[in-house]
Amino acid sequence: MGSTLPSRRVRSIFQRLLAHYGPQNWWPGETPFEIMVGAVLTQNTAWINVERAIANLNANAALSPERILAVEPAQLAEWLHPSGYFNIKAKRLRNFCRWYQAQGGYSALSLWSTDQLRHALLAVNGIGPETADDILLYAFERPVFVIDAYTRRLFARMGLIQGDEGYEHLRRALERSLDCDAAVFNEYHALIVAHAKNICRVRPYCKLCTFRKACPSAAAIGND
DNA sequence: ACCCAGGGTCATA
DNA sequence: TATGACCATGGG
Q1: Is the CB of A44 under 7 A from strand C?
Q2: A123 exposed, middle or buried (CB, 10 Å; 0-12, 13-18, 19+)?
Q3: Which band of pLDDT confidence, cut at 50, 70 and 90, is reported for residue A203?
Q4: What is the pTM of this model?
Q5: Is the per-residue pLDDT at A40 higher than 60?
Q6: Taking the alpha carbons of A115, A8, A218, A206 in that order, is the dihedral positive or negative?
């Protein structure tokens, strides 16, 4: 069940975004573990601040589950300071690292099915649907479509969705409207974010960012 | 001074 | 199930 999205339009929007912005080469990060850390730290946070926090971890040779679990939580929180919510993020990162290590790390987790991985990730306190899907798609290269606020705004503006549907409902709808291809899901989500960021630099805002005014770049991807 | 960012949890009704 | 409070830095 669940409603169906017009496949042709979903693909058309993707092609126009890709033509306009070019390949985004996501996720920014050297290793799968760094990608996972970034996924947690970027929760409701501007990416630039996440980069500073990750730089702190790197500068202290702490970008590994072992080191993150070894240092004092207060120390970890200090390094995470620039990314905001540093106390709760220190706790979430530790929760994640405990789970990650207990399961045997990346090589062991790579053998899990996508459904098993997703279920297990969601059971970690601090990992919600979007963070789990970021990790699945960008660290494990699994074919899941990440739903974030930008995604809702984009497709709502295009008239394809209402915008307040449940996360799982939208994820399934988007996945069904495209070929099951991790590379496409990867690029699509990255392009949606790139578009939102682009417009955010052009104040006053467009609907893709804050629903206030039509944006100058709207014509770039078209409204239909 | 205000708005918001590549969310998630928990308490409450 | 559905809101609301809370977490907190930094750029526009």
Answers
A1: yes
A2: exposed
A3: very low
A4: 0.92
A5: yes
A6: negative
- Which of A58-67, A77-86, A190-199 is least confident? A190-199
- The Cα A60–Cα A180 span in angstroms is 40
Q: Distance in angstroms, CA of A126 to C1' of C1?
A: 21
The DSSP code for A82 is G
Q: How far is A218 from A214, CA to CA, in rounded Å?
A: 7
Q: CA A134 → C1' C11, Å?
A: 24
Q: Is the CB of A45 under 7 A from strand C?
A: yes
CB A168 within 8 A of CB A208: no
Our measurement of CA A11 to C1' B7, in angstroms, reads 27
Structure tokens given for A95: 């929760």
Cα A192 → chain centroid: 11
* Bridge partner residues of A213 (DSSP): A206
